[in-house]
Specification:
The complex is a heterodimer.
Chain A lengths: L15 E4 L3 E6 L2 E6 L4 E5 L1 H9 L1 E5 H13 L3 H17 L3 E4 L8
Chain B lengths: L5 E3 L4 H12 L4 E5 L23 H14 L3 E5 L9 H10 L3 E6 L6 H9 L4 E5 L5 H8 L4 H14 L3 E7 L8 H10 L3 E5 L19 H8 L8 H4 L9 H6 L9 E4 L5 E2 L16 H7 L1 H8 L21 H7 L7 H11 L4 H6 L10 E3 L10 E2 L1
Parallel strand pairs in B: 2-3, 2-8, 3-4, 4-5, 5-6, 6-7
Antiparallel strand pairs in B: 7-10, 8-9, 10-11
Classes of the chains: A alpha+beta, B alpha/beta.
């Protein structure tokens, strides 16, 4: 048996991300609109951010999302994708749009 | 990836998204009326409140699934009175699970503490409650439901207590036209937004008798010049800027109805807009996406540009008119003028439209939406839609 791929990831990529239930969202073409009722604010995500957003099911590790949905689909290096994804996740979490956890969140799926 | 991957919306972002939806042929906004039944009997209402076979719970949930798949983001759930449906929360929960941005329209009479709590948990965008006067004897005479003002205001308080954004919608008509400042104050006292609407809509079957209740042209003239509603009167009431240029007139579309917006009735009928009752298909017979993409009626609506509007294309109000194609349709011709809007332009500017000059008689009520965000936005943010 091979090594567990999740255990080989850097700490940050082992985290799990889930879309908040408090927001409204819809993909329009290659971007995603997100409305936060609490903030009365409308946000948009570009194509790569949308790929992460759509895959943020609470049970897939962030690293796996980056590998599958960013590096492969957008042809960017893992380092670059990781750096930008971390920035994106931090921003979305700060605004209450995304929930980040050290453990899987199956209830968010 | 880049730092532009995530953007907070600038003021023009909605326009940009609207333009993109138009380009992609996506219905960005939809209103679904889940019932026409109502516990009030407002004297100006355009609906038939009898139940002629409204959609079942399963049918409505399926429609919501279809609307989400088609790309609808802004979903208004209205009626009738939405809380008359015992399955209302089941419908709302599905709508939120589909991540619609949900706005509710209600009279609020049936909202109690537990309902307000559930609405807050559902993280809806906002609730609009119809308030006709700050005086119970006036409001209740219009709704024909004794005690309704007290209950509607109490609902607003409960919703605000749970952090939900609330709007008071104040429709003006004979009998309450002098009370809007009282409603404005009532809204401010309860930390609620306020909007005023001097428009009465003909019945969906085309009956226009209800328009007899419209406020007078003089009252409409005064509304446009009330600084508490229109902080920039010089702009609002400026002389008309003339018709659209020929090139613009060939590409400018009359409004979003049927282009990026649509309406679904409790019976599954699809229309371009709630104010544009052109039957375009029925969801009991066809899938929404098939109606949206292939309905001959919607295709006809989409084919109309300003250059084809009879009379309007050369009218001096052409570049500033808020002509409603639905009202024009109800007047008899979706390519013709909407006299209600012509009266509105006249009330604003004192300059008659081409259509009014042709008619040379009869004053009709106006159509306008004036909004102020009480206690939140600066006065200059008032908007005309």
């Amino acid at each position: 048996m091979g090594a567990d791929p999740v255990s080989q990831m850097p700490e940050t990529t082992k985290r799990y991300v889930a879309r908040s239930r408090e927001i409204a969202a819809r993909t329009l073409g290659d971007e995603t609109m997100i409305m936060s009722a609490k903030e009365s604010s409308l946000f948009t995500l570009n194509g790569t951010a949308t790929a992460i957003w759509n895959a943020a099911d609470g049970v897939t590790p962030l690293g796996e999302i980056i590998d599958r949905h960013v590096c492969e689909e957008f042809d960017v290096s893992r380092d670059e994708a990781l750096r930008d994804a971390e920035e994106l996740v931090a921003e979305l979490e700060k605004r209450g749009l995304l929930i980040v956890s050290e453990a899987p969140m199956p209830e968010a799926k | 990836m880049s730092s532009e991957q995530f953007a907070t919306a600038p003021p023009s972002l909605m326009q940009s998204l609207g333009a993109k939806a138009m380009r992609l042929g996506i219905p960005l906004a939809a209103q679904i009326d889940i019932t026409y039944r109502c516990n009030e009997r407002c004297i100006h209402c355009y609906l038939d409140h009898e139940d002629h076979g409204e959609m079942t719970t399963a049918e409505i949930l399926d429609v919501l699934d279809q609307l989400a798949s088609a790309g609808v983001f802004f979903l208004t759930i209205s009626g009738g009175e939405i809380f008359m449906r015992r399955d209302f929360f089941e419908i709302l929960d599905r709508a939120r699970a589909l991540r619609f941005c949900v706005k509710l329209k209600t009279n609020g009479v049936m909202i109690h503490e537990e309902d307000a709590k559930r609405l807050a948990e559902a993280a809806i965008d906002s609730v609009q409650i119809s308030i006709y006067s700050h005086r119970p004897e006036v409001h209740d005479r219009i709704t024909k439901l004794p005690g309704s003002l007290k209950k509607s205001v109490e609902a607003a308080r409960l919703l605000r207590k749970h952090g939900i954004k609330v709007f008071f919608a104040n429709v003006l008509m004979k009998g309450n036209s002098g009370d809007y400042r009282g409603v404005q104050q009532l809204a401010a006292d309860n930390d609620v937004n306020f909007s005023i609407d001097p428009t009465l809509t003909p019945m969906m079957d085309g009956n226009r008798d209800v328009l007899d209740l419209s406020i007078t042209p003089e009252e409409l003239h005064a509304v446009f010049r009330d600084p508490t509603l229109v902080p920039e009167e010089e702009n609002m009431c400026a002389p008309p800027a003339g018709p659209l240029g020929e090139e613009d007139a060939h590409v400018t579309l009359p409004c979003s109805a049927g282009h990026t917006a649509c309406y679904v009735s409790p019976y599954g009928d699809v229309y371009p807009c709630v104010s544009f009752p052109l039957p375009s298909g029925n969801l009991r017979k066809q899938k929404f996406i098939d109606i949206w993409k292939h309905s001959p009626q919607l295709e006809e609506v989409r084919s109309i540009t300003v250059s084809q509007l009879q009379g309007c294309s050369t009218c001096v109000h052409g570049s500033s008119c808020t002509r409603c194609p639905g009202l024009a349709y109800m007047e008899g011709n979706m390519r013709g003028p909407s006299t209600i809007d012509c009266e509105k332009s006249f009330a604003r500017t004192g300059v008659p439209s081409v259509n009014l000059e042709r008619k040379k008689s009869g004053a009709v009520s106006g159509l306008v939406q004036i909004q102020t965000i009480v206690g939140i936005a600066p006065a200059s943010s008032s908007a005309i839609a």
